Protein backbone atom coordinates (compact mmCIF):
# COMPACT_ATOMS: atom_id res chain seq x y z
CA UNK A 1 0.00 0.00 0.00
CA UNK A 2 1.28 3.46 -0.88
CA UNK A 3 1.57 5.88 2.06
CA UNK A 4 0.82 9.55 1.57
CA UNK A 5 2.92 12.13 3.37
CA UNK A 6 1.48 15.63 3.65
CA UNK A 7 3.88 18.44 2.85
CA UNK A 8 4.48 21.56 4.92
CA UNK A 9 4.22 25.15 3.69
CA UNK A 10 4.81 28.39 5.58
CA UNK A 11 2.77 31.55 5.18
CA UNK A 12 4.23 34.71 6.71
CA UNK A 13 1.75 37.61 6.94
CA UNK A 14 3.78 40.79 6.50
CA UNK A 15 1.26 43.33 5.26
CA UNK A 16 0.80 45.25 8.51
CA UNK A 17 1.67 48.89 9.03
CA UNK A 18 3.18 48.58 12.51
CA UNK A 19 1.09 51.43 13.95
CA UNK A 20 2.03 50.65 17.58
CA UNK A 21 5.70 50.75 16.65
CA UNK A 22 5.21 54.29 15.32
CA UNK A 23 8.25 54.07 13.02
CA UNK A 24 8.51 55.54 9.54
CA UNK A 25 9.01 52.11 8.01
CA UNK A 26 6.65 49.16 8.68
CA UNK A 27 8.28 47.14 11.48
CA UNK A 28 8.92 44.07 9.32
CA UNK A 29 11.57 46.12 7.47
CA UNK A 30 13.22 47.83 10.45
CA UNK A 31 16.92 46.97 10.77
CA UNK A 32 17.73 44.19 13.24
CA UNK A 33 21.34 43.02 13.43
CA UNK A 34 22.05 44.31 9.94
CA UNK A 35 19.05 42.69 8.26
CA UNK A 36 15.39 43.65 7.81
CA UNK A 37 13.53 42.28 10.85
CA UNK A 38 11.50 39.84 8.75
CA UNK A 39 14.67 38.27 7.32
CA UNK A 40 15.44 36.45 10.59
CA UNK A 41 12.27 34.35 10.75
CA UNK A 42 12.30 33.79 6.99
CA UNK A 43 15.83 32.39 7.27
CA UNK A 44 14.71 29.84 9.89
CA UNK A 45 11.64 28.80 7.90
CA UNK A 46 13.56 28.52 4.61
CA UNK A 47 16.24 26.41 6.31
CA UNK A 48 13.73 23.99 7.88
CA UNK A 49 14.09 20.71 5.97
CA UNK A 50 10.40 19.81 6.48
CA UNK A 51 9.14 23.01 4.84
CA UNK A 52 8.73 22.99 1.05
CA UNK A 53 8.05 26.68 0.40
CA UNK A 54 7.77 29.90 2.36
CA UNK A 55 5.15 32.38 1.10
CA UNK A 56 5.42 35.96 2.35
CA UNK A 57 2.19 37.93 2.14
CA UNK A 58 2.96 41.60 1.41
CA UNK A 59 0.59 44.50 0.95
CA UNK A 60 -0.47 45.10 -2.64
CA UNK A 61 1.53 48.32 -2.94
CA UNK A 62 4.60 47.18 -0.97
CA UNK A 63 7.59 49.07 -2.39
CA UNK A 64 10.04 48.07 0.34
CA UNK A 65 10.44 44.36 -0.43
CA UNK A 66 12.29 45.06 -3.70
CA UNK A 67 14.78 47.34 -1.93
CA UNK A 68 16.37 44.39 -0.10
CA UNK A 69 18.33 41.37 -1.20
CA UNK A 70 16.67 38.03 -0.29
CA UNK A 71 18.83 35.77 -2.46
CA UNK A 72 20.63 34.14 0.45
CA UNK A 73 17.29 32.60 1.51
CA UNK A 74 17.21 30.45 -1.61
CA UNK A 75 14.45 29.24 -3.94
CA UNK A 76 11.89 28.29 -1.26
CA UNK A 77 10.98 31.95 -0.70
CA UNK A 78 7.99 33.31 -2.67
CA UNK A 79 6.59 36.86 -2.20
CA UNK A 80 2.84 37.32 -2.75
CA UNK A 81 1.48 40.86 -3.09
CA UNK A 82 -2.02 40.10 -1.83
CA UNK A 83 -2.22 41.39 1.77
CA UNK A 84 -5.57 42.54 3.15
CA UNK A 85 -6.98 44.99 5.66
CA UNK A 86 -6.48 42.67 8.65
CA UNK A 87 -4.03 39.92 9.53
CA UNK A 88 -6.75 37.31 8.89
CA UNK A 89 -7.46 38.83 5.45
CA UNK A 90 -3.76 38.66 4.61
CA UNK A 91 -3.49 35.00 5.64
CA UNK A 92 -6.65 34.12 3.72
CA UNK A 93 -5.35 36.00 0.66
CA UNK A 94 -2.17 33.96 0.87
CA UNK A 95 -4.08 30.68 1.20
CA UNK A 96 -6.16 31.52 -1.87
CA UNK A 97 -3.09 32.53 -3.87
CA UNK A 98 -1.34 29.20 -3.27
CA UNK A 99 -4.35 26.97 -3.93
CA UNK A 100 -2.80 25.59 -7.14
CA UNK A 101 0.39 24.48 -5.35
CA UNK A 102 -0.89 22.71 -2.25
CA UNK A 103 -3.00 19.65 -1.53
CA UNK A 104 -6.04 19.97 0.74
CA UNK A 105 -4.39 17.93 3.48
CA UNK A 106 -0.97 19.64 3.37
CA UNK A 107 0.03 21.45 6.55
CA UNK A 108 0.31 25.24 6.59
CA UNK A 109 2.41 26.97 9.25
CA UNK A 110 1.41 30.62 9.67
CA UNK A 111 4.11 32.74 11.30
CA UNK A 112 4.04 36.49 12.06
CA UNK A 113 6.67 38.53 10.23
CA UNK A 114 6.86 40.42 13.52
CA UNK A 115 8.33 37.43 15.45
CA UNK A 116 12.01 37.52 14.40
CA UNK A 117 13.34 35.29 17.20
CA UNK A 118 11.78 32.11 15.87
CA UNK A 119 14.32 29.32 16.38
CA UNK A 120 14.78 26.05 14.48
CA UNK A 121 13.76 24.07 17.55
CA UNK A 122 10.41 25.92 17.74
CA UNK A 123 9.60 24.79 14.19
CA UNK A 124 10.89 21.23 14.76
CA UNK A 125 8.86 20.80 17.91
CA UNK A 126 5.63 22.10 16.42
CA UNK A 127 5.89 19.90 13.33
CA UNK A 128 6.94 16.80 15.28
CA UNK A 129 4.29 17.05 17.99
CA UNK A 130 1.44 17.79 15.58
CA UNK A 131 2.41 15.26 12.92
CA UNK A 132 -0.45 12.90 13.81
CA UNK A 133 -2.89 15.41 15.24
CA UNK A 134 -6.37 15.55 13.75
CA UNK A 135 -6.79 19.30 14.22
CA UNK A 136 -3.37 20.97 14.42
CA UNK A 137 -2.22 23.56 16.90
CA UNK A 138 0.06 26.40 17.87
CA UNK A 139 3.07 27.39 19.88
CA UNK A 140 2.08 29.02 23.15
CA UNK A 141 3.42 29.75 26.64
CA UNK A 142 1.60 29.38 29.97
CA UNK A 143 0.74 32.76 31.52
CA UNK A 144 3.29 33.56 34.24
CA UNK A 145 1.90 36.75 35.82
CA UNK A 146 -1.18 37.33 37.97
CA UNK A 147 -3.94 38.68 35.75
CA UNK A 148 -6.26 41.58 36.58
CA UNK A 149 -9.54 42.39 34.88
CA UNK A 150 -10.01 46.19 34.82
CA UNK A 151 -13.19 48.20 35.21
CA UNK A 152 -13.90 51.31 33.12
CA UNK A 153 -11.81 53.48 35.50
CA UNK A 154 -8.70 51.33 35.30
CA UNK A 155 -9.31 49.90 38.75
CA UNK A 156 -9.14 46.20 39.39
CA UNK A 157 -12.54 44.65 38.96
CA UNK A 158 -11.30 41.16 39.77
CA UNK A 159 -8.30 38.85 39.58
CA UNK A 160 -8.57 36.30 36.82
CA UNK A 161 -7.38 32.77 37.71
CA UNK A 162 -4.43 32.10 35.45
CA UNK A 163 -4.57 28.30 35.62
CA UNK A 164 -5.16 26.99 32.14
CA UNK A 165 -4.36 30.34 30.48
CA UNK A 166 -1.77 30.40 27.70
CA UNK A 167 -0.39 33.15 25.50
CA UNK A 168 -0.72 32.31 21.83
CA UNK A 169 2.35 32.61 19.62
CA UNK A 170 3.12 31.57 16.07
CA UNK A 171 3.70 29.44 14.05
CA UNK A 172 0.18 28.07 14.08
CA UNK A 173 -0.14 24.89 12.05
CA UNK A 174 -3.30 23.53 10.42
CA UNK A 175 -4.29 21.54 7.34
CA UNK A 176 -4.75 23.77 4.27
CA UNK A 177 -8.42 23.04 3.65
CA UNK A 178 -9.43 23.22 7.32
CA UNK A 179 -7.70 26.56 7.80
CA UNK A 180 -9.04 28.10 4.61
CA UNK A 181 -12.63 27.11 5.39
CA UNK A 182 -12.31 28.31 8.98
CA UNK A 183 -10.94 31.71 7.95
CA UNK A 184 -13.59 32.08 5.27
CA UNK A 185 -16.30 31.72 7.91
CA UNK A 186 -14.68 33.51 10.86
CA UNK A 187 -15.05 37.20 11.70
CA UNK A 188 -12.79 39.41 13.77
CA UNK A 189 -10.27 36.72 14.69
CA UNK A 190 -6.72 37.72 15.66
CA UNK A 191 -5.11 34.34 15.02
CA UNK A 192 -5.67 31.16 12.99
CA UNK A 193 -6.46 29.08 16.08
CA UNK A 194 -9.44 31.36 16.88
CA UNK A 195 -10.89 30.66 13.44
CA UNK A 196 -10.47 26.91 13.99
CA UNK A 197 -12.07 27.24 17.45
CA UNK A 198 -15.02 29.13 15.91
CA UNK A 199 -15.49 26.07 13.70
CA UNK A 200 -15.95 23.99 16.87
CA UNK A 201 -12.51 22.38 16.95
CA UNK A 202 -9.83 22.39 19.65
CA UNK A 203 -6.28 23.24 18.52
CA UNK A 204 -3.44 21.72 20.55
CA UNK A 205 -1.14 23.94 22.58
CA UNK A 206 2.52 23.15 22.05
CA UNK A 207 4.71 24.74 24.69
CA UNK A 208 7.17 27.24 23.26
CA UNK A 209 9.17 29.84 25.16
CA UNK A 210 9.21 33.57 25.78
CA UNK A 211 12.07 34.22 23.36
CA UNK A 212 9.62 33.92 20.45
CA UNK A 213 8.28 37.39 21.22
CA UNK A 214 6.24 39.60 18.91
CA UNK A 215 7.82 42.95 18.14
CA UNK A 216 4.95 45.35 18.82
CA UNK A 217 6.45 48.35 20.66
CA UNK A 218 9.90 49.98 20.30
CA UNK A 219 11.27 48.23 23.42
CA UNK A 220 10.54 44.83 21.83
CA UNK A 221 13.06 45.57 19.10
CA UNK A 222 15.83 45.88 21.70
CA UNK A 223 14.70 42.67 23.41
CA UNK A 224 14.72 40.84 20.07
CA UNK A 225 18.22 42.10 19.31
CA UNK A 226 19.45 40.90 22.71
CA UNK A 227 17.87 37.47 22.23
CA UNK A 228 19.32 36.95 18.76
CA UNK A 229 22.78 38.20 19.74
CA UNK A 230 22.99 35.96 22.78
CA UNK A 231 21.57 32.94 21.00
CA UNK A 232 24.17 33.11 18.25
CA UNK A 233 27.18 33.33 20.57
N1 LIG B 1 -3.43 43.77 7.50
C1 LIG B 1 -2.45 43.08 8.09
C2 LIG B 1 -2.11 43.30 9.46
C3 LIG B 1 -1.07 42.59 10.02
N2 LIG B 1 -0.38 41.71 9.28
C4 LIG B 1 0.76 40.98 9.84
O1 LIG B 1 0.37 40.25 10.97
C5 LIG B 1 1.46 40.12 11.89
C6 LIG B 1 1.05 40.42 13.33
O2 LIG B 1 0.38 41.65 13.40
P1 LIG B 1 0.79 42.90 14.29
O3 LIG B 1 1.91 42.63 15.19
O4 LIG B 1 -0.47 43.46 14.85
O5 LIG B 1 1.38 43.87 13.15
P2 LIG B 1 0.86 45.25 12.61
O6 LIG B 1 -0.57 45.14 12.21
O7 LIG B 1 1.83 45.65 11.57
O8 LIG B 1 1.04 46.19 13.89
P3 LIG B 1 0.01 47.20 14.55
O9 LIG B 1 -1.17 46.39 15.01
O10 LIG B 1 0.78 47.83 15.66
O11 LIG B 1 -0.36 48.19 13.46
C7 LIG B 1 2.54 41.09 11.39
O12 LIG B 1 3.58 40.31 10.87
C8 LIG B 1 1.84 41.92 10.36
O13 LIG B 1 2.70 42.36 9.29
C9 LIG B 1 -0.74 41.47 7.94
O14 LIG B 1 -0.11 40.66 7.27
N3 LIG B 1 -1.78 42.17 7.38
C1 LIG C 1 -1.23 35.77 16.08
C2 LIG C 1 -0.64 36.42 17.28
O1 LIG C 1 0.76 36.54 17.15
C3 LIG C 1 -0.90 35.55 18.49
O2 LIG C 1 -0.38 36.13 19.64
C4 LIG C 1 -1.20 37.82 17.49
O3 LIG C 1 -2.55 37.77 17.86
C5 LIG C 1 -1.00 38.71 16.27
O4 LIG C 1 -0.96 40.06 16.61
P1 LIG C 1 -2.21 41.03 16.58
O5 LIG C 1 -1.75 42.26 17.27
O6 LIG C 1 -3.32 40.36 17.31
O7 LIG C 1 -2.49 41.24 15.11
TrEMBL record:
Keywords: Isoprene biosynthesis, Nucleotidyltransferase, Transferase. Its EC number is 2.7.7.60. InterPro entries: IspD, IspD/TarI, IspD/TarI_cytidylyltransf_bact, ISPD_synthase_CS, Nucleotide-diphossugar_trans. SUPFAM superfamilies: Nucleotide-diphospho-sugar transferases. It holds the Pfam family IspD. PROSITE patterns: ISPD. It catalyses: 2-C-methyl-D-erythritol 4-phosphate + CTP + H(+) = 4-CDP-2-C-methyl-D-erythritol + diphosphate. GO terms for molecular function: 2-C-methyl-D-erythritol 4-phosphate cytidylyltransferase activity. Pathway: Isoprenoid biosynthesis; isopentenyl diphosphate biosynthesis via DXP pathway; isopentenyl diphosphate from 1-deoxy-D-xylulose 5-phosphate: step 2/6. The record marks 20, 27 as: Transition state stabilizer. One of its GO terms (biological process) is isopentenyl diphosphate biosynthetic process, methylerythritol 4-phosphate pathway. Gene3D superfamilies: Spore Coat Polysaccharide Biosynthesis Protein SpsA, Chain A. The record marks 162, 214 as: Positions MEP for the nucleophilic attack. It comes from the Bacteria. Catalyzes the formation of 4-diphosphocytidyl-2-C-methyl-D-erythritol from CTP and 2-C-methyl-D-erythritol 4-phosphate (MEP). Belongs to the IspD/TarI cytidylyltransferase family. IspD subfamily. NCBIfam families: ispD (TIGR00453). This is 2-C-methyl-D-erythritol 4-phosphate cytidylyltransferase. The gene is ispD.
Amino acid sequence: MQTFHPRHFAIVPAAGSGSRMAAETPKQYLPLLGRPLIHHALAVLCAAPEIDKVFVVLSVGDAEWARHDWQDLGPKLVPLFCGGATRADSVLGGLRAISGEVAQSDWVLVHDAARPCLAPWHVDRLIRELAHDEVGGLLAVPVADTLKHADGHRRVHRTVPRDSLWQAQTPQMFRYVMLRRALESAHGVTDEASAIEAAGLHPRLIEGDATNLKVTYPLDLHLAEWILKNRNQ
